[in-house]
Amino acid sequence: MDSAKAAVKEFMSKSGHHDTTVHEKVAPAVTHESHQLQQHEQIQTAIDKEVHQDHYHTSIQPIKDREVLPEQHHHNLAAVEHRSFEHGNDAQVKERLAAEAAQFRDERT
C-alpha cells in the first residue's frame, strides 16, 4: 500500500508544473550550388574530295606455245624369285614341337 501512495504522491507532485518533451530531428547538411551554363560551339567542316583511282591489270603473255604431252606410265617389275629354306630335319622339328606341347596339359595333384 505504501508503494501505491508513493506513486500517487509522485504523480501529484508534478501537478501545476509543465512537463515538456522536446523531439528533435537533425537533417544532413544542405549544400547550395550554382550552375552556370556555358555554350560550346563545335564546327566540323566537310571537305568533298574526289579521289580517282586508276585500275591497271598487268598480265604477261607467253611467248612460246606450251605443249602438254599425255602421261606415260612405266612399271619396272623384276621377275618373281622362288626361294626355299631347309632349316633341319622335319622329323626332329615335329618331335620338339610335340614335347613342348606336352608340357602344357591339365594336371590334378
From TrEMBL:
Disordered, as annotated region: 82-109
In terms of superkingdom, the source organism counts as Eukaryota
- Write the protein's name: Allergen
